[in-house]
Structures are given as C-alpha cells and as structure tokens.
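fold-stage: in
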Amino acid sequence: MAVTSDEVCAFARTLPRINEGLVRGNIKFRIGRIVWLSLSRDGSTMGFAFPKYLREALVYSDPEKFSLPSQGDMRYHWAHVRLAAIDADEMRELVEDAWAFCAPKGVAEEYAARSRRAEHLPG
C-alpha cells in the first residue's frame, strides 16, 4: 500500500535533532543546515539524502520507483522516490537511512542502538 506525505512527515518528526520547514511550498527536513528529506508540493515525491556513487544503481534497480534529482541538484547526495510506489516499511527504511547519512555519527549510532534494543523488548 502506498504511503502519504503525512505518514512520511509523522515518521521523520520522530528522529532526533531534526528541523522542519516550508521552502517554496516544499516540506523540508534538516539536520543543522543540511536538508536530508524533502516532499514535493503535491506530496507525490520524496527527495532524500543518498550517496551519489550509488544513486544510478538505485534508479536502474527500479526506474518506476526511483529517479535522479533535477540537473541542478545532481551535485548533491540526493535521489527521489514516488510515494505511490513504496509501502510503509520501505518508507521508514529510506527515511532512517537518509537521516543517518546526514546525522552526526554519534547521534546516529545512539539511535540505532536504541532501535535495536526496542526491537528485542517483549510485547
């Protein structure tokens, strides 16, 4: 089932040290001054931090789902995904990975350790 931009925002807001803002009609999430996640005005596409050297392989792996950024944004570590093409689990993975790619290393490691502990709690 496809995810909505509201679901993306709700999950992104749970991550440490993030700031959210509206820039030219697009919702953007930052860590400090680094934008790590962005939603298109119509909520159909999510831009996310992603290693430059892997993004062509990502798009090639599923061109109906993933796309390269605009020519002006190719200099950034960035890729796009159509929200209609992913489910909630994949969205969470993409969002967490994008956040961890830009977060301070210690913060990302602490978050990962807490997440692993939470997965092993009974209940």
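fold-stage: in (second)
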Amino acid sequence: MASLVYLKNCFNLSDEDLCARWSENVLWQFFSGLDYYEHRLPCDPTQIGRFRRALGEDGLEQLLKATIDTAVAIKAVKPAELERVIVDTTVQEKAIAHPVDSRLREIARHKGISAARRAGIQLKQTFAKEGKELRRRAGGYAHAKQFRRLKKVVKPQRTTLGIVIREVRRKLEAPAFAALDAKVLSDLTMWLERAERIRIQQTKDKNKLYALHAPRWSASTRCKARKPYEFGGKAAIVVSHKASLMMGARTFPGNP
C-alpha cells in the first residue's frame, strides 16, 4: 500500500486510474515488491484514500523520506544531485461528477433523508417520487439546451430540498428527540449544513460546493476548449533536477 501512495504522489493520478494502470504496468508491480506479473487490481481504490488518512501528514513525510534515503543507499541518485530541484504546480483532480445544480440538489435531498432515518427521524414528506421526476426532466432540458424550462425545474427542486431540511431541523430541536449515537447526530448535522449550502448557492457565487463528499475542492480554469475547468485542488511537487526523484509534495485548499 505504501508503494501505491508513492506512485500516486509521483504521477498525480486518481485512485481509480492508479489501480487500473498498476494492473497493466510491469515496472510498477516490480516496484511494489512482486516477483511475477499479475493482471489484477492491487486493492479497492477506496482503500488508498483510507490508508493515506490513517498515515496522516507526518506519516506521509516519513514515507517520502524513506524513499529518498533508499534511493541514495542503493546509489540510484547521488547526494549532490539533490541540491538542485524543480518545483512545479498542477491540479490534483478529484473523482467527482460534473457539478450540475439539479443533480447536486437531488443528491443533497437523498443524503439528508438517509441521515435522518439513521438518527431515528421519520419525515412526513420525502419527495422521492417528485425528486426522481424532476431530475429526469432537468436532464432532458439540459441536453436539449432549453434553459428556461430547466430553470422552472430547478426551482421546485430547491423548494422541496428546503422543506426537507426545515422539517429535519424542527424534529432535531424537539424536546422529545433523543439521538441514538453521537456520530449519527454529527453526520446528520454535517449533511444538513452541506445541503443548505447546495440549496442557497447561485451560479456565479464564490466558494461553491461542487460535491457533497468533497467540500474542500474547488474549480480551476484550464483555458482549453475541450475541458474548460478542472475540479480538485492545487498541488505543488518538488523533484530532483537530473533523476526526477520525488522529494516533496503539498496540496493547497481553495484556489490560490
């Protein structure tokens, strides 16, 4: 798993792309310690993110230091070559769908209702049938570029989402409510806050929420016709000048 984290930092890939390329790359598998080529995924892509969170920032720095010390020990790079480095920035893309307003509001409604049920809250209205129909109509109007009709669909989505949020909050503040678990209550509060951000944000607002599961990521302008924007975070990478050995990496939240 540590070798996968190192490869991810070196090649700036998403977890899904990293696992797919690892299953096809003989050199990467040899770097990971395998003696024979195996055409399989190394692990589930979600395990890489959990492993990185478990290591923390200090653990990742120790892992990077160990790779540099190993490269010097096996004479793959000379210590004098580490005195001159190249620093560059790029965008680390997040594995999120394109942030469409109608889709985000439907997901926010579904997440809020699911979190409320886990907390033992029974809602009077969930708008499950209406939400599914509105999402289908919004997708058709957006594909046909009928934006006036699209606005008439997005507005009731905002209204139904607001009704669900207000009902959940009323029942949370009721004296008779008793949460079963502190974590369940914390998750419900988190989803409600993010759903409220999705509900009130407008097209030209700053610091928008582009994905409910990744609130820290932002949009970066790429200035290319085929892909005008990238959704992720800025990352700075330091490599040695001659051997291109990875020596440091850091992400910057927001869009500096």
